[in-house]
Amino acid sequence: MKLDGAAAVVTGGASGLGEATARALAAAGVKVAIFDLNAEAGEKVAGEIGGVFCPVNVTDDASVDAGFEKARAAHGQERILVNCAGTGNAYKTASRAKDGTVKHFPIDEFNKIIQINLVGTFRCIAKSAAGMLSLEPMEDGERGAIVNTASVAAEDGQMGQAAYSASKGGIVGLTLPVARDLMGDGIRVNTILPGIFNTPLMNGAPDNVKEALAASVPFPKRFGDPAEYASLAVEMCRNSYFNGEDVRLDGAIRMAPR
């Protein structure tokens, strides 16, 4: 796909992997709209890349609709969607405390992660793809490209990650069938499974925890740089033969149980 002059939407684009992707797309000549809840950070990034910020909650239909309306009013119908919005939590499925008290994973917390990470991703996919159908096809009949963010936890989730792993596994599971749903209309769909990346969420961890995690990566023994994620996301958009794939980007790590 020719990127220069195209329009894109990046969810979670105010920080971390989404911010890096928004910046990389803008550097390639793409007109970028950032969907995020953090207005201050989102406006700042959008201003620096010549884009537009849209306050969006991916769990809310009306909010997502308003975001796409604002983005399309500014840049026209997007040909690119990159889904980076997401979050996580950690609770064991069931556990017994030293005093004998038994508790289980709070169901509302499980549902929250599924709604944000999985349903929110699919909501944006469906609404963006519907808009892409209005576009004239490019070379090879291509109308658009969608990139989703899963996680290595989709395949080797750790203790406490039942909700997070389920949400990210769902993203992996929908990639191929959605690519098949949209193949007749020239819309490609791919997913990245990042490992341990240097994002704001990770920056909040204690130094000893970060050092141990970095040392657990086979090679290179460090956290991934968000720019490395962005590089792959941009290539998935640019390379028109990239379709229906789920790709780990993780320095060959396989997560231990804890």
TrEMBL record:
Claim: Oxidoreductase is one of the keywords in the record: yes
Keyword annotations from UniProtKB, A to Z: Oxidoreductase
Domain of life: Bacteria
A molecular function (GO) term: oxidoreductase activity
InterPro entries: NAD(P)-bd_dom_sf, Sc_DH/Rdtase_CS, SDR_fam
Entries under PANTHER family matching the protein: 17-BETA-HYDROXYSTEROID DEHYDROGENASE 14-RELATED, SHORT-CHAIN DEHYDROGENASE/REDUCTASE
Membership in a protein family: Belongs to the short-chain dehydrogenases/reductases (SDR) family.
Name by which UniProt lists this protein: NAD(P)-dependent dehydrogenase (Short-subunit alcohol dehydrogenase family)
Species, as recorded: Sphingobium jiangsuense
